[in-house]
Amino acid sequence: MGREKRLTEYQQYHNKNKHTDTFEERNFENTIDIACVRLEEYLGEKGFVRGVDFSKLTPQQSGTFQRLGTDAKNDYVPLFWLVSEVILSTDYVIASKEPRKLYISEVKGTNKLKAEDYLKLKELNDKAEKVNLRYNQVPIEVGLWYFENPSTQNVPIYRDFKQVREIWEAIPDSEMQEYKEKNWMGLAKKYKIMNY
Question: Which of 140, 143, 153, 161 has a C-alpha 20 to 30 A away from that of 111?
Fold first, then answer.
């Protein structure tokens, strides 16, 4: 599907739907994860190539990236909510050529960060820090790319985990809000509105 057709489909969906939609309405009536589309466009503009080894990059290219995370819109995984309790994954891995660095990244098209997503970032960061102590030739950084309005904005805001943690911890837990749908255990999906 071409870029313009994807954006048109997303805008048609976005214009008639709101954040109160159910999981099924958000993911099966709309087949576009526009924040991911925007990130890939942004990386392409910055000279990053999808799925290429460093040895295959030209001198003009900045690095490589690959999408790891699944998305119910495009890569539906049965019972993913249960799979995600076993497998710790992220949306993207981005590797820059100069300086050589590996970014483990989540992508968000909303400033609502669920507590479970924050905890996942924290766990990824804890693991990355341990690896960085043992192997420091290619530093690993965990972070988050945020598009305030992905249907019109194509330049993301990037925050490393330390910055995400500072923003998260500055918001009192008493200000957490809840989605109307529940998680797989029947508990509230809590989130904080982040000021990235």
Answer: 140
Q: What is the rounded CA–CA span in Å between residue 49 and residue 63? A: 6
- Report the range of poorest mean pLDDT among 19-23, 82-86, 126-130, 188-192: 19-23
Report how far Cα 29 is from the mean position of its chain's Cα atoms.
Answer: 20
Burial letters 161-193, b for 16+ CB under 10 A, else e: beebeebbeeeeeeeeeebeeeeeeeeebebbe
Give the Å distances, CA to CA, from 120 to 25, 43, 55, 91, 144.
25, 24, 32, 11, 12
The residue type of 29 is E
pLDDT at residue number 10: 44
Q: 108 vs 149, which has greater pLDDT?
A: 108
Number of domains composing the chain: 1
Query: What predicted TM-score, i.e. pTM, was given to this entire model?
Result: 0.81
Distance from C-alpha of 63 to C-alpha of 58, rounded to nearest angstrom: 9
User: What is the CATH number for 78?
Assistant: 3.40.1350
Q: What distance in Å separates the CA atoms of residue 36 and residue 43, rounded to the nearest whole number?
A: 10
Whether 111 contacts 194, CB under 8 Å = yes
For 95, the domain range is: 3-193
d(Cα 35, Cα 147) in Å, to the nearest integer? 6
SS3 call for 1: coil
Task: Give me 101's structure tokens.
Answer: 């660095």
